[in-house]
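S.,

As promised, the FE2/S2 (inorganic) cluster run. Input:
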Amino acid sequence: MKKKLIQDLLVVENKILSEKYFILHLQSPTPLPEILPGQFVQIEVKDSKNTFLRRPLSIHDVDYKTNTLKLMVQVLGEGTKKLSLTKQGEYLSLVYPLGNSFSINDNEKALLIGGGCGIAPLLYLARHMNDKGIKVTVLIGGASQSDILEADEYRKYGEVYITTFDASLGEKGLVTQHSIFNAPTFDFTRIYCCGPEPMMKALARIAREKGIDCEVSLENMMACGIGACLCCVVETQDGNKCTCTEGPVYEFKYLKGW
Ligand SMILES: Cc1cc2nc3c(=O)[nH]c(=O)nc-3n(C[C@H](O)[C@H](O)[C@H](O)COP(=O)(O)OP(=O)(O)OC[C@H]3O[C@@H](n4cnc5c(N)ncnc54)[C@H](O)[C@@H]3O)c2cc1C
Ligand code: FES
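Predicted complex:
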């Protein structure tokens, strides 16, 4: 197992996207360790009585030249609310890089699908694939236009399609209802997705029908983050596995009941 760092990172920027979403841009004082697409950090929430456990967040993007990484965050409860108030110049304590990563094959025709903030780990994946000359298509879904985050960043790496439930942007409906799935040109070899579990289960069903691979990034609740408390366990074909150490990315067929 590769070494994990516990490190204070400098907040270079806290980009507020809306009341609900923000992006933390963090700089390491030392060269970044190798970070793979799909890996996550456990971040400390300072000065908060109720959030003494670190919070897991996907690594959104990485820049080895500046030793910086980004985290895209949705404000959900006290921990993420507190993090949203972080100011430039402060330091945040991270344990990273954690977890496994998405699989990448050279001849992949990749369809990356994110629901809301579930799109977070897919930017670094898109960048990584682009560097390897792999064609990427991205489908982003959200309840409304305000839940479609940073679409232009993803456009740097491939075509981007959008669905919103209220039809405020892109096609109306859920990501699974997008016309791309019925297009005669559909020739993807693998879906990579992250978002609400019902969305990922529905995408897994589509992948099964089409006979293609589908990797899902689970966002199970976590506490210790090191395989000790068993609160993130998921049932697989090989028995129970801790998502914090053996996940968060799984081929859907490996998960029981998917
Ligand atoms: C591997 C991994 C990667 C993640 N990546 C991201 C990311 O890139 N961006 C991001 O915004 N979030 C991500 N999450 C989810 C994030 O960790 C939680 O939203 C966060 O811990 C909530 O903390 P909080 O203190 O704000 O809310 P809490 O006060 O802990 O919880 C508020 C409410 O949200 C529910 N909740 C908390 N965590 C989760 C969860 N994981 N799934 C569903 N419901 C939950 C609680 O039950 C409660 O009802 C990720 C989770 C995992 C496991
Ligand atoms: S979070 Fe404790 S075992 Fe995974």
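The mean pLDDT is 95. The pocket of FE2/S2 (inorganic) cluster (ligand 2) is lined by residues 222-225, 227-232, 242, 244 (CB under 6 Å).

- D.
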